[in-house]
Amino acid sequence: MMRKVLFLSSLFAVGCAPKGSFDAKLVDPVSGEGLAGVAMVLSSPTNPSPACMELEVTTAEDGSFFTDGLCANGDYTISSRDKTIVLEHIGAIPGGVLSTEKVTVNAWPAAPGDGIFSYDGTDWTKLRTIAKIGVSKIYNTEENVVYPDTLPTRVVVVPAGSWLVFAGGKFTDRHEFLPMLQHDAYLRLGSSKEPERSEPWWYVGVEFSSDTEYTRRDAKLDASKVKEIEQGGVKLRFVPGDAVPNGFYVMYYEGFLADPRYKKLYMVNMGAALDAPGAE
User: Fold this and answer.
1) Shortest CA distance to 240 belongs to which of 121, 130, 144?
2) Half-sphere exposure of residue 92, counting CA atoms within 13 Å on the CB side?
């Protein structure tokens, strides 16, 4: 009899571990609305009980969902079967613990491929490169200055309430994001032995006071407004139109000097619409 009791106790410990719950709401952070009818999956792949390894629940009309089957033998991660969204990371969900409050799970829209996009909450616009990258030495120095070889007559605008979106690791991790600054006088570049004379132009991340006086400027990005999302191999960066001062910004691949295939740049107008640098 004692052996039977011990056997049943062991079986209970593995197959019927104490259960916890998870109470949450799936929300589109762009619109602020709950997402209905989305299949959510809570996974604990190392859980010793097969019945506890994966739980699925569908969101209600207001985006709410609830499950009370989280076993105590491991933590859970959350994902979705809907490939049009990417979930913002919320950390591990402990098994065997009863939920005491409703958790908001942000579901960001998945971009329609790798690249750089503007997104207004409904439509995606893929940015195209607008110019080749020019590079010169700041006068009589070994410092480079980058600039577009031509100036565009039209530039995509990302106003407040819309987003500039970097999609894919090459774009989230390996692209510079810098302001484009106008210098409205002629400028000497290169060296006294091999001088270059530039007409009034726009430069990337460098503000000139004279041929030899300059200041490097960054994008003054408000990092608290930027969202970095990574799930299931998908990487996204959402930069709202009001995360930087109003103006023109340039994106280019950081390794372009070593790889001429990437010697092109993107440009975007963040904030209120301005006349394009090349506009008449």
Assistant:
1) 121
2) 9
Q: Are 58 and 108 in contact (CB under 8 A)?
A: no
Extract the tokens encoding 131: 């110019």
246 pLDDT band, cuts 50/70/90, is very high
Strands 131-137 and 264-270, by their bridges, are: antiparallel
Answer whether residue 86 shows pLDDT above 60: yes
Q: Determine the Cα–Cα distance for residues 168 and 112; give it in Å rounded to an integer.
A: 11
User: Hey, what are 146's tokens?
Assistant: 């980058």
The DSSP call for residue 24 is E
Structure tokens at 46: 């190392």
The Cα 206–Cα 3 span in angstroms is 79
Give dist(CA 55, CA 52) in Å, integer: 7
pLDDT at 16 over 60: no
Which residues have C-beta within 8 Å of that of residue 139, sequence separation ≥ 6?
187, 188, 189, 190, 191, 192, 195, 211, 212
Going along the chain from its start, the domains and CATH numbers come out as: 2-109 (2.60.40.10), 115-270 (no CATH)
pTM equals: 0.85
Report pLDDT digits (tens) over 196-230. Answer: 999 999 999 999 999 999 999 999 999 999 999 99
Structure confidence at residue 64 (pLDDT)? 98
**Whole-angstrom distance, CA of residue 103 vs CA of residue 96:** 17
